[in-house]
Design brief:
There is one protein chain. The chain has 275 residues and is of the alpha/beta class. The protein has 9 helices and 7 strands, in the order E-H-E-H-E-H-H-E-H-E-H-H-E-H-E-H. Helix 8 (200-208) links the parallel strand 6 and strand 7.
Length: 275
């Protein structure tokens, strides 16, 4: 795999950006993870939350102008399985970037000399990255933990902030239903027309006999969403992991961060997040 960890040499030399999904809090401590990544050689560390905000705007437009079924596509596991097992539904997949790809595009604008590295809770993101010119590498959580052990990088208590692109409310994106809850869809689609579902077996079962009234499938491959990803080694229950994400959201609102916390839309003006 061209974009796998085997093609990176640590500690990193050069300009690299680590892109963290908010699911990281079920595996790593905030804000210690930022310091630890910088000890590995990352020049910048950002979170995917602003990228998620930008794709939410695309879903809002898509659902406002669509009459038929729309299947959410931020999860590459969902995308790949639908294409492989029930290709007749391929046409309903939203042609909208995932937060990973959207964030990588924004990073490439602001840091054109840097390589982007996504820190991932699952394997499917590696497949998605291979198809993206903006995501240069992917490291999963298990691989990252091994790097911290190998280079003896401890946890840190010193407060350190993400480098750019702050946004609070989309920190719940890795939870089942996180997209629909944060996309401000009121007025674009009726509540009863949205179905939130996690677990690929459940999704496939539904698509074999779908309810005609459903217009938006807000679906994720893993039970619980990305917090249940196969590269998450946490022993916590899905419910306990969910509580950690929600606490992270609430705590973040109290932070005195160094720049506007809502991720200014102007920063992404002109970047295409859908096709």
């Amino acid at each position: 795999m061209k974009k796998g960890i085997e093609n990176l040499k640590f500690p990193l030399k050069g300009k690299y950006i680590a892109m963290l999904a908010p699911s990281f809090v079920v595996e790593f401590s905030y804000a210690s993870i930022i310091s630890r990544l910088k000890k590995l050689g990352f020049d910048k560390v950002v979170e995917l939350t602003f990228g998620a905000k930008m794709i939410n705007r695309e879903y809002y437009k898509k659902l406002k102008n669509s009459k038929g079924l729309v299947i959410a596509s931020p999860c590459p596991g969902i995308v790949e399985i639908i294409k492989a097992k029930i290709p007749k539904y391929k046409k309903y997949l939203a042609r909208i970037d995932s937060p990973m790809v959207a964030t990588a595009k924004i990073c490439k604008r602001f840091y054109p000399d840097h390589k982007t590295v996504f820190i991932s809770p699952c394997h499917y993101k590696k497949i998605e990255a291979e198809k993206s010119k903006d995501v240069d590498f992917v490291i999963d959580y298990k691989q990252l933990n091994k790097l911290f052990v190998k280079f003896k990088i401890p946890k840190y208590s010193k407060r350190i902030y993400f480098d750019k692109f702050y946004n609070d409310y989309t920190k719940i994106y890795p939870l089942s239903g996180g997209l629909g809850k944060t996309a401000h869809l009121k007025g674009t689609i009726k509540k009863e027309e949205i179905l939130v579902m996690d677990g690929i077996a459940n999704v496939l079962k539904f698509l074999k006999n779908p309810e005609p009234k459903i217009r938006f499938l807000d679906v994720l491959f893993c039970i619980g969403g990305c917090i249940g990803g196969p590269c998450v080694s946490s022993k916590l229950s899905i419910e306990a992991r969910k509580k950690k994400v929600l606490k992270y959201l609430e705590d973040s609102k109290k932070e005195d961060i160094p720049e506007p916390r809502k991720g200014l839309i102007e920063k992404a003006k002109g970047i295409k997040f859908s096709s």
